[in-house]
Design brief:
The protein is mostly helical. Helices cover 63% and strands 10% of the residues. It has 2 domains: 55 residues, Arc Repressor Mutant, subunit A, CATH 1.10.10; 55 residues. α2 packs across α3. The longest helix has 20 residues.
Length: 116
C-alpha cells in the first residue's frame, strides 16, 4: 500500500497512522517527507491537530486513476485507448465474471454514445 492509498482509505491520518498502515517499515521522517512532497504538488492538505498534523487527500482516487491511465495511454499506447483496453482484456487472469462486468460497462457506454 502507498501513502495516497492509506489517505484515501482512512480519509485523513497523521504521519504515525500512515506509517502504521504501510507495508514497508519506513522511518517517520521518510513518510513525513513523502507527505510534504504530495502537499507541495497539491495532492494532500493538512490541519494541525495538537502537536501533529492530520493529512487528507485533495485529489479523489478516481481522479488520480484517470490521470494515471491518461499518462499510460499516451506514453505506452501512443494515445490509443483501443490498444490499452485490448491489452487489459487479453490478460488471462481475468475471470468470466470480470469479463461480463466489463462487457456490461462497454455496452452501457455504447448505448450512451449512440443516443448522443
Amino acid at each position: 500500500m502507498d501513502v495516497m492509498s492509506v489517505l484515501w482509505d482512512l480519509g485523513s491520518a497523521t504521519v504515525n497512522e500512515v506509517s502504521a498502515q504501510l507495508d514497508d517499515d519506513l522511518a517517520y521522517t521518510t513518510v513525513l517527507t513523502v507527505l510534504r512532497i504530495l502537499e507541495s504538488k497539491g495532492l494532500v492538505g493538512h490541519e494541525r491537530e495538537g502537536r501533529a498534523h492530520r493529512y487528507h487527500p485533495l485529489l479523489a482516487r478516481r481522479e488520480a486513476g484517470r490521470s494515471v491511465l491518461d499518462r499510460l495511454r499516451e506514453k505506452v499506447y501512443s494515445g490509443s485507448t483501443e490498444m490499452l483496453v485490448a491489452n487489459l482484456v487479453s490478460d488471462e487472469r481475468l475471470s468470466a465474471k470480470t469479463i461480463r462486468r466489463l462487457r456490461k460497462l462497454l455496452d452501457e457506454r455504447l448505448e450512451k454514445e449512440e443516443r448522443g
